[in-house]
Each structure stands twice: as structure tokens, then as C-alpha cells.
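Hey all, sorry for the wall of text incoming. These are the two entities for the joint prediction.
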Amino acid sequence: MLNEILPKSFKGVLLETWGIVNFSIRFFKEAFKPPYNLNEILKQFFKIGYKSLSLVGITGFIIGFVLALQAIPTLQPFGATSLIPSMIGLGIILEIGPVITGLICAGKIGSSIGAEIGSMKVTEQIDAMEVSACNPFNYLVITRVIATSLMIPLLIIYADTIALIGGYIALNVVSDVSLGLYFREVFDALKFSGIIGPVVKTFFFGFTIGIVGCYKGYIADKGTESVGIAANSSVVISSLMVIIWDMIAVQITNIIL
Amino acid sequence: MSLDYIINIENLKKSFGSTVILKDINLQLKKGETVVTLGKSGTGKSVTLKCIVGLISPDSGTLRILGKNIPELNYEQLLYIRKKIGFVFQSGALYDSMSVRENLMFPLIRNTDMNKNEIESKVEEVLNDVGLLDAINKMPSELSGGMKKRIGVARTIIMNPEIMLWDEPTTGLDPETTRDISHLIVRMQRKYNVTSIVVTHDMICAKIVANRIVVLKEGKYTESGTYDELEKSTDNFVRSFFEDVNNNEKEKLSNYERK
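and here's what came out:
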């Protein structure tokens, strides 16, 4: 009955959601079982974290720089330029830094994981692991999801720091502010309780990007086209999920505080 | 009675959607026996192999491998039985991101208690068996198709399996490499006394490796016998495989001593 009423696209969304939820449940069931593949986790830390530093750093710097440049002419007529460091701090750390970095990571890391695992599926490498009694879920999925869950929050902290420096440089283009004063203004505007939400949500971003990339790769069909589909849909779904998690985090933070 | 067989398949059925692939598969293999499966593309030869190793669940039937009914096993039990089965994929299915050495070390590190030195010497031993010790530090992208298949074989035999499943081991290879791979299958069988099922369209390979040949047609094994017996078959479908072997190949094949 329900099957006939629901539109096909909506059924597709429900099935996809159910698939990702099931995949996540399997992750938590298997994450604590040996073997723990520490070498592979470290390798993924390097691939996901270190190899994203330049992209995330450049993006962070431009965000901070542009935010400050746009704020200066807007606030100057009101004589409120002294509020710019606080505005940059709040904007970058609470919202713009995590979301933009999350979206960039969804694009770079999500697509890379989706394509890598999808290609392994298509070329029967995952089947080869299965038949040689090497649980591929444990080796491929657990390691990558742990790496994204831990590295993406660190990348976001890194991007926030670079963005704040970018904001400071932009501010110094038009006025003269000392670094110490700038950062004191930035941190004075932040409350410890206020940054818990933005920090916690970054772990959800990381987990989601990893699990969606692995899931889409893992269910790739036979054929090279499905590798592209896996990479593409990993980016689309994880980007959407980053926005949804952000919205949920803001709502929860507002209710609690 | 059925425990005498290393592989005992009874009434195996498998469909994908409305397409029936396997209607009624029955096959028994004793220890050390090598059976070649012939059949047209898409008739379910590889599906049968994947059912044996638990990659595909059958719709019904019994698949008793080393005394265990595969469809009834949970994942941990399946992993345990898979340690005793080697599966050689058509493409070799080497792990792209690992060197040849790492490809071979991977199952040993995860499934055995061997120390690093023991693993290293085992890797060298099996690479020597397949004649590719020189390729130990190469990446899969640096290897030819035939070399990839040999490394695939090495990665499989390194676990000392009791059963070997070969999925079109000679497809896409030139006749010389086809013969090399076929002789490799025979050597592995003699050295390790494994029970093997070889899926192939290649009659050169079939003649060299088979103790028995079974023919898969319309989801069932319709014919069974030695190479010589099937060569004399009056069934047109069976004959079509032998007619594909041209006269030149027949002459060369007649020079091979069958087991």
C-alpha cells in the first residue's frame, strides 16, 4: 500500500537513508573488534589530514581575509571597526570555518574515499579480501571512518586559525592593529560553552563524510561508470549532511544555552 | 557418505530477479581432483564459484564444503572456512595500493601468527613457485596481465588452501601464457594436492588441467566426463567447444600428456 503511494524518488531517498544507517550500525558493531589496523589508520591520517592541509589552509585564509575586507566598509560608518575582530572570531569559529571546511572536505575526501572503494569493488579487490578471510569492512571502512572522524575536526581547527590570521592581515591593510590585541578581542567574544557545539559538530561532519564515502563505494555496481557515480553521490550526500548536521547543532546549542 | 567429498553441491538454485541462472546444480569432488566447468558466458559458472565461497547466497540447495554447509554459516564461520579456500579471480584482483610483496603478506599478517621473517620467506617461496621472484617490489600497475594472474595465484596458494577455485584463469592471455598458467595450475595441484574447480572456455587449459570436465547448460550440468570422452560426444552443444579448437591447436594439444 505504502509502496504504491510513495513517489519513486522519495522511496529512493528512504532506501538510501536506511542503507547509510545500517552501514553506520555495522561500523559501531565492528569498530571495537580486532584486528585494529593501526598502520592503515596512520596511513589514512596522512592521506586525509596532511594531504588536505594546503587546500584547507588557502581556503581558510581567503575566507578570513574576505570576511574582514567586507566587514570594514560596512562597520566603519558606524564607528564600529573595533568590533571587527569579535565579529570575525564569532563568524569563523562558530559557523563559517566548520561549515566551509566541512564542505571542502566532503568534496575532496568524500569523493576520494567513494572513488577508491568503488574502484576496489568494481575490480573485485573487495571480493578478493572477502575470500581470503580478510574482513574488508574492518580493513577499509573502519580505518577510513576513524581517520575522517578524527582528522576533519583537526583540519577545521587549522582552517579556523588560518582564517583568523587572514582576517588579521586584511584588517592591517586598512588600519593598524597589534596581533595580541586582535586575538584578545577575538577570544573575548567567545564563551567556552559557546564553542562546545561547533567543536562537537565537526566530529559528526568527519564521521558522516567517511561513512557516506565508504558506503557509496561499497555498494558500487560492476562497471567503471559506477565508480564515478560513487564519487559523485558521496560528495552530494555528505555535503547535504554537513549542512543538516550544522542546522541541528545550531538548534541544539540554542536550546541548551 | 557425503563427507567423503571435499566439495558436495546438491540441488543448487540461484536467480537474479526473474532471471534463473542456476536451476539444479549437482557436483561432487574428491580430494585432489580437478574439475573443469565449460559453458557459455552468462550461464552461471562464476556464480557457482561465488556461491561456494559465500560471496553470493544461493536461493536453495546444499553447498557442503569441507563438511560445512556454506549457506548455514554465520560470518565468522564463513571467514574460517574461507581460509581453506583459494579463489583466483579472472583479473587477478591485486590490491592496487600495495606492492606485490604487500599483496602476498596481507592475508598472512591477518590470518596467521607467523613472524616477519617467516612471512618474508613464505612470500619468496611462493613467488619462486610462480616464477616471479623478480617482481617482488613492483606495483600491480607495472605488471602484465599474465604476471597479475600469476601473482593472484601466489597470493592464493600462500595460505595453503585445500580447495582452489579458478575463475577463467586464461581469459585474455596469449596461447603461450595460457599454457604457462595451465601448467602452473597442474604444478600447484601436484605440489599442494589441492581440490580444484576451473571455470574456463579455453580448451587448451581444459585439456591440460582437467581430471574431469562438466558442461553447464541452461542452469544444469548436462554432460560429465574426461576430455577424451567429451571430445567424442554427439551433443552439438558439447561439440561446439571442441570445434572451436582449430586444427593447429589440436595438433599441439595431442602432444600434451594428460594426467
